[in-house]
Amino acid sequence: MKAESLVNEHCLQKNSAEHEGYAGGRRSHRLIWKERGSAGPALLEKILNKDNLYRAYKRVKANHGAPGIDGMSIEEALVWLKENGARLVEDICRGKYTPQPVRRKEIAKPDGGVRKLGIPTVVDRIIQQAVAQQLAPIYEPLFADESYGYRPGRSAQGAINKVKEYAEEGYTQAVVLDLSKYFDTINHEHLLNILRRNITDERVIQLIKRFLKSGVMDQGVFEETEAGSPQGGPLSPLLSLIYLNEFDQEFAKRGVRFVRYADDIAMFAKSRRAAERLLNSSVSYLEGNLGLTVNRTKSRVVSVFSATQFKYLGFALGKNRNGVYVRVHPKSLAKFRSNLRNLSSRRHAQSILPAFRAIRLYVSGWLNYYGIATMRKFLITSQQWLNQESACASGSNGNCPERNCGSCGNLVLMGSWPTTRLTPARPTGEYQTPRGSKWPLQTKSCTSGDSLIWSPLIQPLRTNTIEIAVYRTVRTVV
User: Average pLDDT for residues 432-444, to the nearest whole number?
Assistant: First the structure.
């Protein structure tokens, strides 16, 4: 796209007073250019650097996102950029670039209601990604240690482990805060003022403002966006982090124990009275200082050991004689069993082999997320139930040449706990864990020659100091 040469030609002219101003900006483009003159290397040049734009394009392509309102796919965008990339960079430098409205897409929430997404066009997503790639190194060191969402090297597993650490220290009363439509209620002017503290290039501020004010196209009807940063664009997660970092820094200075994953906030205290004071002060700050809306009915004080009331990122906490442990929340377990039932039902599984492959893929992903939790008994009972389902399927749908094939009837997809390796105990086909739990595995194969026995060698994989369960298979047909 020859972005680098265009940046040098159009963006580095400090005396370019003839450039037109940004539409809707509070200051003229001439003044913005003059302020930028003594600020050192300008941020906009880094954003429009050829290598940065190319990395942004590759990232957007890897995400396999849907088209925006123009219907342009990522493949079509590449052809368009080859022809119009030079003019696009020039328009951004001159302040003439106007993002297109985002396409409204609603998806159902598990607990009811809908989540409104805003899908930008592919070209706008590339520019947003280029901006995010340059802003992330600036703001990452400024984020609080208690923030875990949308950040490199951090995860939901790290967040729940931090909650467990607080509980072990005696902070067992949790303040669960529910922000109502957080991404749709971010105050634009407040966000832009926060950005100005660390971004000296006002042209970048005005570019971000244009993305925020681009509007929404909902079923052919244009709607202006006076607030919010629609979910669906590459820049939205970073802007949401920057906005709530104000809350993080304020309560970190107060010495409050809390964990935040995106807009999921949990605060902790040692007594219920202290937790209730935290609830009142946090609601006051979020609504009064940040202009957000707190759902008063869902925000409450609960015990971290209450399985029915405390749920954080799909996890819960338990306590026994060995101490505090992480467990999967009952609602997450029920959803897992329901999905397994759907994948193994005869309505969805007309052929047994594709059904087994789909189940294996789903279970592997589920364990990669929940593998840090203690769930031995649940895995054993789920394994037994799944074996019964697979035996029923193989003996009734006629896809297996041997209807009572032991391989199909005893498909092993799950193990008992992440740190246990199944080892051969007897030559009769039984495998035994070090704790004495037996898993009957039959070695008989289908007459087609494909063995469907998957030995559940679940080994711990250390990633970012978090152990997560990962499948290792001995024999597989996929």
Answer: 36
